[in-house]
Amino acid sequence: MLNITELLDEIKASPFEEVVITAPHTGIVEFAVDAPGGNVVGPSGTWREKPGTLLARLDREKNKKPIHAALKGVVEHVHTELAGRFVEAGTRLMTIRHFLSKEEVLDRLLRKTLHLFNAPERAKYYFRPDIDIKVKSKGCQSVEVRPDMDLFIVSRMKRESQLNYVGPEGIIYAVYFEANQNVDAGAPLIGVCRKDELSAIQDVVSRVQGEWVEQD
Question: Is 106 helix (H, G, I), strand (E, B) or coil?
């Protein structure tokens, strides 16, 4: 098992990530945020229906399309030299420093600690019906898995097939997919925790919830 204390200390030493905002398509840039240091917020509302801070607009054939912040943070750099100029898709427009939330720190730690069972191909994934009922009624941590266990149904191109679990015996600690949503090849479906490591994992969760201080 990883040294959780060391890993958590590393994240504390650098509690943010740099998010680069790029042009989604070609167009002439008009910045709505044109100086570093300002706070921005991501989408909000019950269904995240309210867009985040307006960062810029791209004018393509007299059709202005907005670019909104996808998460909260502080604007670190704006490429103001591009204002009023035509840019290609993928051009860097600005950088936002995003401070990690408790949930994001936990997610990072768990993904490095748990055994991740990944999607072998891009497709929709479902738990076997009896497992799905158990997950929905009692939570994923009520499900024990073992090597070669019939666990998933894979739906692709209107065809369904069985997918067996490969990995160590344990309990499903985290579920990373949603039914009816396509999952890319290599993306994790579940995170499995060995029974003898469960107390250590729970200790990690408690430490993050108790020690992590979120920043605006």
Answer: helix
